[in-house]
Amino acid sequence: MDNVCFQQRLRDLETRVRKWKFLRLGLTEVRLRPRDRRSTSVDQKHKECSSTSSSPQHQRPNNIGYLTSPMERKFTPLSMKPSPSRRDTEKDALEFEYMEGYKKSGTLDIDGVKQTVDPNEIQILGLLGSGSCGVVESAMVRKKLMAVKTMYKNDNKENLKRILRDVRIMSLCDSPFIVRSYGYFMFNSSVKICMQIMSACCEKLLRRIYHSKLDFFPEYVAGHIVYSAISALDYLKEKHSIIHRDIKPSNILFDDSGNIKLCDFGISGFMTNSMSHSKSAGCPPYMAPERLTIETNSKYDVRSDVWSLGITIYQLVTGLYPFPLKDLEFTTLTIIANLNLPSPSLKEEKTRSFSPLFIEFLDFCLRKDVRERPEYKQLMKHDFFLEYDPASGDAYKLKNINGNCNQVAEWFNNVIKQSKVEDELKQIPNTPCVN
Ligand SMILES: Nc1ncnc2c1ncn2[C@@H]1O[C@H](COP(=O)(O)OP(=O)(O)OP(=O)(O)O)[C@@H](O)[C@H]1O
Protein backbone atom coordinates (compact mmCIF):
# COMPACT_ATOMS: atom_id res chain seq x y z
CA MET A 1 0.00 0.00 0.00
CA ASP A 2 1.53 3.37 -0.91
CA ASN A 3 2.05 5.98 1.74
CA VAL A 4 -0.55 8.47 0.47
CA CYS A 5 -3.23 5.81 0.42
CA PHE A 6 -2.33 4.67 3.91
CA GLN A 7 -2.38 8.26 5.22
CA GLN A 8 -5.82 8.70 3.70
CA ARG A 9 -7.05 5.55 5.40
CA LEU A 10 -5.64 6.73 8.70
CA ARG A 11 -7.57 9.99 8.36
CA ASP A 12 -10.75 8.07 7.55
CA LEU A 13 -10.21 5.87 10.54
CA GLU A 14 -9.66 8.85 12.83
CA THR A 15 -12.90 10.44 11.64
CA ARG A 16 -14.74 7.23 12.32
CA VAL A 17 -13.30 6.86 15.81
CA ARG A 18 -14.54 10.37 16.61
CA LYS A 19 -17.99 9.41 15.37
CA TRP A 20 -17.94 6.26 17.48
CA LYS A 21 -17.19 8.37 20.54
CA PHE A 22 -19.90 10.85 19.75
CA LEU A 23 -22.57 8.27 18.99
CA ARG A 24 -21.59 6.16 21.94
CA LEU A 25 -22.03 9.01 24.36
CA GLY A 26 -25.35 9.95 22.80
CA LEU A 27 -26.69 6.42 23.08
CA THR A 28 -25.49 5.98 26.64
CA GLU A 29 -27.23 9.12 27.75
CA VAL A 30 -30.54 7.93 26.35
CA ARG A 31 -30.15 4.49 27.91
CA LEU A 32 -29.29 5.79 31.34
CA ARG A 33 -32.45 7.80 31.62
CA PRO A 34 -35.18 5.31 30.84
CA ARG A 35 -37.84 7.42 32.55
CA ASP A 36 -37.17 10.30 30.17
CA ARG A 37 -38.10 8.25 27.15
CA ARG A 38 -40.80 9.67 24.96
CA SER A 39 -43.83 7.48 24.68
CA THR A 40 -44.33 5.55 21.47
CA SER A 41 -47.36 4.86 19.41
CA VAL A 42 -47.29 1.17 20.27
CA ASP A 43 -50.27 0.04 22.32
CA GLN A 44 -49.34 -1.39 25.65
CA LYS A 45 -50.16 -5.06 25.85
CA HIS A 46 -48.64 -5.64 29.25
CA LYS A 47 -48.20 -3.03 31.88
CA GLU A 48 -44.54 -2.71 32.84
CA CYS A 49 -44.04 -5.11 35.66
CA SER A 50 -42.81 -3.19 38.69
CA SER A 51 -41.42 -6.25 40.49
CA THR A 52 -39.13 -7.00 37.56
CA SER A 53 -37.79 -3.55 36.87
CA SER A 54 -34.09 -3.04 37.42
CA SER A 55 -32.90 -0.99 40.32
CA PRO A 56 -30.76 2.13 39.80
CA GLN A 57 -27.57 0.34 40.77
CA HIS A 58 -28.05 -1.87 37.74
CA GLN A 59 -27.61 1.09 35.47
CA ARG A 60 -24.08 1.37 34.25
CA PRO A 61 -22.18 4.62 34.76
CA ASN A 62 -21.58 6.23 31.42
CA ASN A 63 -17.79 6.27 31.49
CA ILE A 64 -17.24 2.51 31.38
CA GLY A 65 -17.79 -0.15 28.81
CA TYR A 66 -16.74 2.42 26.24
CA LEU A 67 -14.19 0.42 24.32
CA THR A 68 -15.94 -2.91 24.09
CA SER A 69 -19.52 -1.96 23.58
CA PRO A 70 -20.94 -2.17 20.12
CA MET A 71 -21.11 1.26 18.64
CA GLU A 72 -23.29 2.58 15.92
CA ARG A 73 -21.50 3.55 12.73
CA LYS A 74 -23.13 5.59 10.03
CA PHE A 75 -20.86 6.98 7.40
CA THR A 76 -23.17 7.33 4.46
CA PRO A 77 -21.80 10.10 2.26
CA LEU A 78 -24.10 13.12 2.26
CA SER A 79 -25.21 12.57 -1.32
CA MET A 80 -26.30 9.02 -0.48
CA LYS A 81 -28.21 9.85 2.69
CA PRO A 82 -31.75 8.48 2.59
CA SER A 83 -34.47 11.07 2.37
CA PRO A 84 -36.40 11.75 5.57
CA SER A 85 -39.43 9.94 4.17
CA ARG A 86 -37.39 6.77 3.57
CA ARG A 87 -35.94 6.94 7.07
CA ASP A 88 -39.43 7.20 8.51
CA THR A 89 -40.57 4.22 6.47
CA GLU A 90 -37.80 2.10 7.92
CA LYS A 91 -38.66 3.22 11.44
CA ASP A 92 -42.33 2.45 10.78
CA ALA A 93 -41.38 -1.02 9.61
CA LEU A 94 -39.41 -1.56 12.82
CA GLU A 95 -42.29 -0.31 14.94
CA PHE A 96 -44.58 -2.65 13.02
CA GLU A 97 -42.23 -5.58 13.68
CA TYR A 98 -42.21 -4.58 17.35
CA MET A 99 -46.01 -4.62 17.42
CA GLU A 100 -46.06 -7.98 15.66
CA GLY A 101 -43.74 -9.25 18.38
CA TYR A 102 -46.49 -8.58 20.93
CA LYS A 103 -48.41 -11.56 19.56
CA LYS A 104 -45.92 -14.01 21.01
CA SER A 105 -45.11 -11.95 24.08
CA GLY A 106 -45.55 -13.92 27.29
CA THR A 107 -45.56 -17.35 25.66
CA LEU A 108 -42.65 -19.29 27.14
CA ASP A 109 -41.44 -22.74 26.14
CA ILE A 110 -40.17 -24.17 29.41
CA ASP A 111 -38.75 -27.69 29.17
CA GLY A 112 -40.82 -28.45 26.08
CA VAL A 113 -44.10 -27.14 27.52
CA LYS A 114 -45.52 -23.98 25.93
CA GLN A 115 -47.23 -21.83 28.53
CA THR A 116 -48.64 -18.35 28.85
CA VAL A 117 -46.88 -16.54 31.65
CA ASP A 118 -47.80 -13.25 33.30
CA PRO A 119 -44.83 -10.87 33.64
CA ASN A 120 -45.56 -10.57 37.36
CA GLU A 121 -44.50 -14.19 37.68
CA ILE A 122 -40.88 -13.19 36.99
CA GLN A 123 -39.15 -13.14 40.37
CA ILE A 124 -35.83 -11.36 39.99
CA LEU A 125 -33.08 -12.89 42.12
CA GLY A 126 -29.95 -10.92 41.31
CA LEU A 127 -27.81 -9.16 38.73
CA LEU A 128 -25.76 -11.30 36.32
CA GLY A 129 -24.30 -8.54 34.17
CA SER A 130 -25.02 -5.48 32.12
CA GLY A 131 -24.29 -4.41 28.57
CA SER A 132 -24.78 -1.34 26.45
CA CYS A 133 -28.42 -2.18 25.78
CA GLY A 134 -29.66 -3.36 29.16
CA VAL A 135 -29.18 -5.68 32.11
CA VAL A 136 -29.18 -9.44 32.60
CA GLU A 137 -30.62 -10.80 35.87
CA SER A 138 -31.18 -14.24 37.30
CA ALA A 139 -34.85 -14.97 37.89
CA MET A 140 -37.28 -17.68 38.86
CA VAL A 141 -40.23 -18.18 36.54
CA ARG A 142 -42.66 -21.01 37.33
CA LYS A 143 -39.99 -22.80 39.36
CA LYS A 144 -37.48 -22.56 36.49
CA LEU A 145 -34.25 -20.68 37.12
CA MET A 146 -33.41 -18.55 34.13
CA ALA A 147 -31.54 -15.46 32.95
CA VAL A 148 -33.71 -12.49 32.00
CA LYS A 149 -32.22 -9.83 29.76
CA THR A 150 -34.05 -6.49 29.90
CA MET A 151 -33.47 -4.06 27.05
CA TYR A 152 -34.92 -0.56 27.10
CA LYS A 153 -36.52 0.82 23.99
CA ASN A 154 -36.04 4.46 23.05
CA ASP A 155 -36.65 6.66 20.03
CA ASN A 156 -33.35 5.69 18.42
CA LYS A 157 -33.87 3.50 15.37
CA GLU A 158 -30.61 1.60 15.90
CA ASN A 159 -31.66 0.77 19.46
CA LEU A 160 -34.94 -0.65 18.15
CA LYS A 161 -33.14 -2.66 15.48
CA ARG A 162 -30.80 -4.08 18.09
CA ILE A 163 -33.63 -5.19 20.37
CA LEU A 164 -35.59 -6.77 17.53
CA ARG A 165 -32.52 -8.62 16.20
CA ASP A 166 -31.72 -10.05 19.63
CA VAL A 167 -35.32 -11.23 20.10
CA ARG A 168 -35.63 -12.62 16.56
CA ILE A 169 -32.30 -14.43 16.40
CA MET A 170 -32.55 -15.89 19.89
CA SER A 171 -36.00 -17.28 19.03
CA LEU A 172 -34.64 -18.80 15.78
CA CYS A 173 -31.63 -20.60 17.19
CA ASP A 174 -31.58 -24.21 18.24
CA SER A 175 -27.98 -25.23 18.85
CA PRO A 176 -26.22 -26.76 21.86
CA PHE A 177 -23.59 -24.04 21.42
CA ILE A 178 -25.97 -21.08 21.66
CA VAL A 179 -27.80 -19.94 24.79
CA ARG A 180 -31.40 -21.11 24.44
CA SER A 181 -34.31 -18.70 24.57
CA TYR A 182 -37.52 -19.69 26.39
CA GLY A 183 -39.47 -16.74 25.00
CA TYR A 184 -39.86 -13.04 25.70
CA PHE A 185 -42.07 -10.32 27.10
CA MET A 186 -42.65 -7.11 25.20
CA PHE A 187 -43.74 -3.91 26.92
CA ASN A 188 -44.32 -0.41 25.71
CA SER A 189 -40.77 0.65 26.44
CA SER A 190 -38.78 -2.50 27.16
CA VAL A 191 -38.32 -6.13 26.22
CA LYS A 192 -37.38 -9.05 28.47
CA ILE A 193 -35.80 -12.11 26.89
CA CYS A 194 -35.97 -15.20 29.10
CA MET A 195 -33.06 -17.53 28.45
CA GLN A 196 -31.09 -20.47 29.71
CA ILE A 197 -28.98 -19.41 32.66
CA MET A 198 -25.22 -19.84 32.44
CA SER A 199 -22.64 -19.56 35.21
CA ALA A 200 -20.10 -17.01 33.98
CA CYS A 201 -18.76 -15.36 30.86
CA CYS A 202 -15.09 -15.57 29.83
CA GLU A 203 -14.61 -11.91 30.71
CA LYS A 204 -15.62 -12.50 34.34
CA LEU A 205 -13.54 -15.68 34.54
CA LEU A 206 -10.49 -13.86 33.24
CA ARG A 207 -10.88 -11.16 35.87
CA ARG A 208 -11.26 -13.71 38.68
CA ILE A 209 -8.20 -15.59 37.41
CA TYR A 210 -6.09 -12.44 37.12
CA HIS A 211 -6.89 -11.05 40.57
CA SER A 212 -6.47 -14.43 42.30
CA LYS A 213 -3.17 -14.98 40.45
CA LEU A 214 -4.31 -18.31 39.00
CA ASP A 215 -3.06 -19.66 35.66
CA PHE A 216 -4.82 -18.18 32.64
CA PHE A 217 -7.08 -20.39 30.49
CA PRO A 218 -5.24 -23.64 29.71
CA GLU A 219 -4.84 -24.72 26.09
CA TYR A 220 -7.41 -27.53 26.38
CA VAL A 221 -10.07 -25.09 27.64
CA ALA A 222 -9.21 -22.77 24.74
CA GLY A 223 -9.63 -25.82 22.47
CA HIS A 224 -13.13 -26.45 23.79
CA ILE A 225 -14.02 -22.76 23.40
CA VAL A 226 -12.75 -22.84 19.81
CA TYR A 227 -14.77 -26.00 19.07
CA SER A 228 -17.99 -24.64 20.63
CA ALA A 229 -17.71 -21.11 19.22
CA ILE A 230 -16.89 -22.25 15.67
CA SER A 231 -19.68 -24.84 15.79
CA ALA A 232 -22.11 -22.09 16.87
CA LEU A 233 -20.88 -19.62 14.26
CA ASP A 234 -20.99 -22.23 11.50
CA TYR A 235 -24.54 -23.18 12.55
CA LEU A 236 -25.60 -19.51 12.40
CA LYS A 237 -24.08 -19.12 8.95
CA GLU A 238 -25.25 -22.37 7.38
CA LYS A 239 -28.75 -22.60 8.85
CA HIS A 240 -29.77 -18.97 9.13
CA SER A 241 -27.25 -16.91 7.07
CA ILE A 242 -26.41 -14.96 10.20
CA ILE A 243 -23.08 -13.39 11.08
CA HIS A 244 -22.57 -12.72 14.82
CA ARG A 245 -20.29 -9.62 14.60
CA ASP A 246 -19.73 -9.25 18.34
CA ILE A 247 -17.44 -12.09 19.38
CA LYS A 248 -15.59 -11.09 22.55
CA PRO A 249 -14.96 -12.63 26.00
CA SER A 250 -18.21 -11.30 27.53
CA ASN A 251 -20.31 -13.05 24.89
CA ILE A 252 -18.90 -16.54 25.49
CA LEU A 253 -20.52 -18.22 28.50
CA PHE A 254 -19.75 -21.31 30.60
CA ASP A 255 -22.10 -23.41 32.70
CA ASP A 256 -21.09 -25.57 35.67
CA SER A 257 -21.04 -28.69 33.50
CA GLY A 258 -18.37 -27.23 31.24
CA ASN A 259 -20.71 -26.38 28.33
CA ILE A 260 -19.66 -23.32 26.39
CA LYS A 261 -22.22 -21.19 24.53
CA LEU A 262 -22.48 -17.93 22.60
CA CYS A 263 -24.95 -15.17 23.49
CA ASP A 264 -25.89 -11.61 22.50
CA PHE A 265 -27.23 -11.27 18.97
CA GLY A 266 -28.12 -7.58 19.20
CA ILE A 267 -25.73 -6.59 16.45
CA SER A 268 -25.74 -9.79 14.43
CA GLY A 269 -26.61 -9.41 10.78
CA PHE A 270 -28.32 -11.34 8.03
CA MET A 271 -26.08 -12.02 5.05
CA THR A 272 -26.79 -11.93 1.35
CA ASN A 273 -24.45 -14.02 -0.81
CA SER A 274 -22.45 -14.78 2.33
CA MET A 275 -21.61 -11.11 2.77
CA SER A 276 -22.79 -8.71 5.42
CA HIS A 277 -23.64 -5.29 4.07
CA SER A 278 -24.55 -3.48 7.23
CA LYS A 279 -22.42 -0.55 8.26
CA SER A 280 -23.52 -0.63 11.86
CA ALA A 281 -22.16 -2.33 14.90
CA GLY A 282 -19.08 -3.93 16.29
CA CYS A 283 -16.78 -3.69 19.22
CA PRO A 284 -13.66 -1.88 17.97
CA PRO A 285 -10.86 -3.67 19.90
CA TYR A 286 -12.10 -7.04 18.62
CA MET A 287 -12.92 -5.91 15.09
CA ALA A 288 -11.03 -7.37 12.16
CA PRO A 289 -8.73 -5.08 10.13
CA GLU A 290 -11.06 -5.15 7.11
CA ARG A 291 -13.92 -3.83 9.26
CA LEU A 292 -11.81 -0.87 10.32
CA THR A 293 -10.98 0.29 6.81
CA ILE A 294 -13.36 2.56 5.00
CA GLU A 295 -13.36 0.77 1.64
CA THR A 296 -14.26 -2.66 3.00
CA ASN A 297 -16.19 -2.01 6.20
CA SER A 298 -19.58 -2.12 4.55
CA LYS A 299 -18.95 -5.52 2.92
CA TYR A 300 -17.38 -8.32 4.89
CA ASP A 301 -17.98 -11.96 5.66
CA VAL A 302 -17.73 -14.45 8.53
CA ARG A 303 -13.94 -14.30 8.47
CA SER A 304 -14.27 -11.08 10.46
CA ASP A 305 -15.72 -13.16 13.30
CA VAL A 306 -12.79 -15.59 12.92
CA TRP A 307 -10.45 -12.68 13.70
CA SER A 308 -12.52 -11.62 16.75
CA LEU A 309 -12.45 -15.19 18.04
CA GLY A 310 -8.66 -15.29 17.53
CA ILE A 311 -8.17 -12.10 19.56
CA THR A 312 -10.51 -13.41 22.27
CA ILE A 313 -8.65 -16.73 22.55
CA TYR A 314 -5.26 -14.97 22.59
CA GLN A 315 -6.48 -12.81 25.46
CA LEU A 316 -7.86 -15.75 27.46
CA VAL A 317 -4.69 -17.84 27.31
CA THR A 318 -2.20 -15.01 27.88
CA GLY A 319 -4.31 -12.76 30.11
CA LEU A 320 -3.49 -9.85 27.81
CA TYR A 321 -5.26 -8.03 25.05
CA PRO A 322 -2.60 -8.19 22.29
CA PHE A 323 -2.54 -4.50 21.31
CA PRO A 324 -1.48 -1.55 23.47
CA LEU A 325 -4.52 0.14 25.01
CA LYS A 326 -2.89 2.69 27.28
CA ASP A 327 -2.88 5.18 24.44
CA LEU A 328 -5.93 6.59 22.71
CA GLU A 329 -8.03 3.91 21.09
CA PHE A 330 -7.30 5.53 17.73
CA THR A 331 -3.70 4.29 17.97
CA THR A 332 -4.90 0.79 18.80
CA LEU A 333 -7.25 0.66 15.84
CA THR A 334 -4.55 2.02 13.55
CA ILE A 335 -2.19 -0.77 14.58
CA ILE A 336 -4.88 -3.39 13.96
CA ALA A 337 -5.85 -1.93 10.59
CA ASN A 338 -2.30 -1.59 9.26
CA LEU A 339 -1.65 -4.75 7.26
CA ASN A 340 2.08 -3.99 7.25
CA LEU A 341 2.33 -4.45 11.01
CA PRO A 342 2.53 -8.04 12.29
CA SER A 343 -0.39 -9.87 13.87
CA PRO A 344 -0.14 -11.10 17.44
CA SER A 345 1.14 -14.67 17.69
CA LEU A 346 1.52 -17.15 20.54
CA LYS A 347 4.99 -17.88 19.09
CA GLU A 348 6.13 -14.71 20.83
CA GLU A 349 4.66 -15.75 24.17
CA LYS A 350 7.47 -16.16 26.70
CA THR A 351 5.66 -17.00 29.92
CA ARG A 352 3.65 -20.06 28.80
CA SER A 353 4.18 -22.74 26.23
CA PHE A 354 1.58 -23.92 23.75
CA SER A 355 1.42 -26.78 21.28
CA PRO A 356 2.59 -26.05 17.71
CA LEU A 357 -0.91 -27.02 16.48
CA PHE A 358 -2.57 -24.43 18.69
CA ILE A 359 -0.05 -21.74 17.70
CA GLU A 360 -0.62 -22.50 14.02
CA PHE A 361 -4.42 -22.50 14.41
CA LEU A 362 -4.42 -19.11 16.11
CA ASP A 363 -2.00 -17.70 13.54
CA PHE A 364 -4.52 -18.69 10.83
CA CYS A 365 -7.36 -16.94 12.68
CA LEU A 366 -5.25 -13.81 13.12
CA ARG A 367 -4.15 -13.32 9.53
CA LYS A 368 -4.60 -9.63 8.94
CA ASP A 369 -5.37 -9.95 5.26
CA VAL A 370 -8.91 -11.29 5.11
CA ARG A 371 -8.18 -13.06 1.82
CA GLU A 372 -5.67 -15.26 3.62
CA ARG A 373 -7.84 -15.91 6.66
CA PRO A 374 -9.73 -19.25 6.62
CA GLU A 375 -13.51 -19.68 6.83
CA TYR A 376 -15.19 -22.01 9.33
CA LYS A 377 -15.18 -25.08 7.12
CA GLN A 378 -11.40 -24.82 6.65
CA LEU A 379 -10.84 -24.27 10.37
CA MET A 380 -13.03 -27.28 11.12
CA LYS A 381 -10.58 -29.45 9.19
CA HIS A 382 -7.58 -28.21 11.15
CA ASP A 383 -6.08 -30.81 13.51
CA PHE A 384 -6.37 -28.45 16.48
CA PHE A 385 -10.16 -28.18 15.97
CA LEU A 386 -10.46 -31.93 15.31
CA GLU A 387 -8.80 -32.69 18.64
CA TYR A 388 -11.84 -31.20 20.38
CA ASP A 389 -14.50 -32.42 17.98
CA PRO A 390 -16.28 -35.49 19.41
CA ALA A 391 -17.39 -36.49 15.92
CA SER A 392 -13.94 -36.47 14.48
CA GLY A 393 -11.39 -38.09 16.10
CA ASP A 394 -9.16 -40.51 17.66
CA ALA A 395 -7.56 -37.81 19.72
CA TYR A 396 -10.90 -36.89 21.25
CA LYS A 397 -11.86 -40.53 21.84
CA LEU A 398 -8.53 -41.13 23.53
CA LYS A 399 -9.17 -38.21 25.88
CA ASN A 400 -12.57 -39.66 26.79
CA ILE A 401 -11.09 -43.08 27.43
CA ASN A 402 -8.58 -41.49 29.75
CA GLY A 403 -11.45 -39.99 31.70
CA ASN A 404 -10.79 -36.41 30.68
CA CYS A 405 -14.16 -35.64 29.15
CA ASN A 406 -15.24 -33.43 31.99
CA GLN A 407 -11.94 -31.64 32.31
CA VAL A 408 -13.50 -28.30 31.37
CA ALA A 409 -16.14 -28.53 34.12
CA GLU A 410 -13.44 -29.45 36.61
CA TRP A 411 -11.28 -26.51 35.55
CA PHE A 412 -14.24 -24.11 35.62
CA ASN A 413 -15.41 -25.17 39.08
CA ASN A 414 -11.86 -24.94 40.45
CA VAL A 415 -11.51 -21.38 39.16
CA ILE A 416 -14.80 -20.44 40.78
CA LYS A 417 -13.76 -22.07 44.07
CA GLN A 418 -10.31 -20.48 44.16
CA SER A 419 -11.33 -16.95 43.18
CA LYS A 420 -13.63 -14.25 44.48
CA VAL A 421 -16.90 -13.08 42.98
CA GLU A 422 -16.10 -9.43 43.70
CA ASP A 423 -13.08 -9.69 41.37
CA GLU A 424 -15.48 -9.96 38.44
CA LEU A 425 -15.93 -6.19 38.66
CA LYS A 426 -12.23 -5.31 38.86
CA GLN A 427 -10.32 -4.23 35.80
CA ILE A 428 -7.26 -5.94 34.30
CA PRO A 429 -4.48 -3.69 32.94
CA ASN A 430 -4.33 -3.35 29.15
CA THR A 431 -7.64 -5.11 28.63
CA PRO A 432 -10.63 -3.54 26.92
CA CYS A 433 -13.04 -2.33 29.57
CA VAL A 434 -16.45 -3.98 29.75
CA ASN A 435 -19.51 -3.41 31.83
N1 LIG B 1 -27.78 -16.44 29.76
C1 LIG B 1 -26.95 -15.85 30.62
N2 LIG B 1 -26.63 -16.47 31.78
C2 LIG B 1 -25.78 -15.89 32.66
N3 LIG B 1 -25.19 -14.70 32.48
C3 LIG B 1 -25.46 -14.04 31.33
C4 LIG B 1 -26.35 -14.58 30.35
N4 LIG B 1 -26.40 -13.69 29.33
C5 LIG B 1 -25.61 -12.67 29.65
N5 LIG B 1 -25.04 -12.87 30.85
C6 LIG B 1 -24.10 -11.96 31.56
O1 LIG B 1 -24.56 -10.64 31.39
C7 LIG B 1 -23.53 -9.85 30.77
C8 LIG B 1 -24.18 -8.81 29.89
O2 LIG B 1 -24.70 -9.42 28.76
P1 LIG B 1 -25.16 -8.60 27.50
O3 LIG B 1 -25.37 -9.56 26.41
O4 LIG B 1 -26.30 -7.73 27.86
O5 LIG B 1 -24.02 -7.55 27.26
P2 LIG B 1 -22.45 -7.62 26.85
O6 LIG B 1 -22.26 -8.54 25.72
O7 LIG B 1 -21.62 -7.88 28.07
O8 LIG B 1 -22.21 -6.14 26.44
P3 LIG B 1 -22.73 -5.38 25.15
O9 LIG B 1 -24.20 -5.59 25.07
O10 LIG B 1 -22.36 -4.00 25.46
O11 LIG B 1 -22.01 -6.02 24.03
C9 LIG B 1 -22.65 -10.86 30.04
O12 LIG B 1 -21.36 -10.37 29.89
C10 LIG B 1 -22.71 -12.06 30.96
O13 LIG B 1 -21.74 -11.94 31.97
TrEMBL record:
Renumbered residue ranges of the record's region Disordered: 35-89
GO BP: hyperosmotic response; locomotion; stress-activated MAPK cascade
InterPro entries named in the record: Kinase-like_dom_sf (IPR011009), Prot_kinase_dom (IPR000719), Ser/Thr_kinase_AS (IPR008271)
Start and end residues of each Protein kinase domain: 122-385
Enzymatic reactions: L-seryl-[protein] + ATP = O-phospho-L-seryl-[protein] + ADP + H(+); L-threonyl-[protein] + ATP = O-phospho-L-threonyl-[protein] + ADP + H(+); L-tyrosyl-[protein] + ATP = O-phospho-L-tyrosyl-[protein] + ADP + H(+)
EC number: 2.7.12.2
Subcellular localization, as worded in the UniProt entry: Cytoplasm
Top class in the EC scheme: transferase
Bias (Basic and acidic residues): 35-49
A GO CC term attached to the entry: cytoplasm
Superkingdom, natural source: Eukaryota
Keywords: ATP-binding, Cytoplasm, Kinase, Nucleotide-binding, Serine/threonine-protein kinase, Transferase
GO MF annotations, alphabetized: ATP binding; JUN kinase kinase activity; protein serine/threonine kinase activity
Compositional bias ranges of the Polar residues kind: 50-66
PANTHER family: DUAL SPECIFICITY MITOGEN-ACTIVATED PROTEIN KINASE KINASE 5-RELATED (PTHR48013), DUAL SPECIFICITY MITOGEN-ACTIVATED PROTEIN KINASE KINASE JKK-1 (PTHR48013:SF14)
Family that this chain belongs to: Belongs to the protein kinase superfamily. STE Ser/Thr protein kinase family. MAP kinase kinase subfamily.
Full protein name: mitogen-activated protein kinase kinase
Gene expressing this chain: Cbn-jkk-1
